[in-house]
């Protein structure tokens, strides 16, 4: 089946947390419409860009784009941005059931509200290995009042001006800022209106006695989040589109880029319960709990007067690590594409990626093995396919961090290099990637959620301190590692993943914090370019940067 949508992209006026702000809307709404398809369907989604001053692209987060690397929607890697007045059609197969989302992947447009949910159902007659009577979807987010252009300007500036804490946390694009905190008689006061219907809390309706599949996704720009439902436990069953060994929890950590399904039994006696969202992993400076409502049997909707639900303290990293380690692959996963780890697969290459905060000529950047990623205007995929010299740095970026690096101190050399090099692999390679987290310029170490495009990976493990190539691999979970496309790193700690290069293309691997990608925290992996070349990429992804020369009039 072909699922077609026509999306008109324009600025729209929104008030997600009662504070009026211009956001990027789709067909006049924010958040974007939910796309629903069945495993094996072809999606044909056409975007029309009506924003006079910005290009756009759309990334299908968690969809591997098997055979359609050009449709991955990453500006500078997969395609040229869609310019004002132009239209562009993404066409790809959704080959796996699960919970996904889509979001802009150019500049910081995701943080401007350019996102929506994508749900892929099992074909008729097939069933998940768990039962539910109904389902709901909630995308969570952190939210700022300043526009993204102001945020980006601050990140580029000398001195650096960080975006700071979010003003509010949103569930399904709805939160609540305390307007009385805004000085009266200022333009800001006029922008804040707590009776605006658009910031009424999100309501999840349930019927007593039934079980619901709640799908969750985090598109947060900065914050690690924790989700709770007052008085209810959650049974976690799916993570990043893969069913996992179910486990119960009363609070769920959600890192940016992750998706989950949890089962919730509506078995409590009251009418309304809080849905609560809190900041984890960064000092929260009292960012207020994002609130929604779980409403029973169509009773009058009321935000309960009970205290807002709180998960573990923001700095309880041990709780987060314990939860991260609970994820295990489901043995008899009915999804054949969710291939089990071949324990005997020979690892053909190991990358140890040290992620540092450094400076580049006075600008604060994030770097991987001393290279901050600086995208060039030519899409890397086109550069590789057409062999366009100058479209990316041909010197390969470094595979290893310095063995004697002290992860507990700020970087000894503050100045970083900038680059646009590509890690090139052979199809069939099995690669271990270790992400090593360390002290930043203030010698603080933060969570960084890493996301891989084009592939899923097995999470082999998390370890405190510095990765030791001799002893650390002995701790890897090779029995039932979960397969995902997102993984957190914890402060002063390492995370190890493994994946098989079986989907030709050029694929970013980056920190999913919007502001950190902007500051260069990512790399590009590529393989199987001959196959992409043989199949061809559509002209519609070309035209910018050095690809212009491909269209020279003869
Ligand atoms: O990228 C970041 O910059 C700030 C800080 O390190 C410098 O102001 C911060 O908390 C980040 O996550």
TrEMBL record:
Q: What is its EC number?
A: 1.10.3.3
Give the reaction(s) catalysed: 4 L-ascorbate + O2 = 4 monodehydro-L-ascorbate radical + 2 H2O
Q: Which domain of life is it from?
A: Eukaryota
Q: Which keywords does this Swiss-Prot/TrEMBL entry list?
A: Copper, Disulfide bond, Metal-binding, Oxidoreductase, Secreted, Signal
Q: Give the Plastocyanin-like domain ranges.
A: 9-122, 135-299, 415-527
Question: One MF term from GO for this chain?
Answer: oxidoreductase activity
Its annotated compartments are: Secreted
The record describes its quaternary structure and partners as: Dimer.
The name of this protein is: L-ascorbate oxidase
Look up and give the organism this protein is from. Answer: Physcomitrium patens (Spreading-leaved earth moss)
Name the lineage.
Eukaryota, Viridiplantae, Streptophyta, Embryophyta, Bryophyta
Gene of this entry: LOC112293700
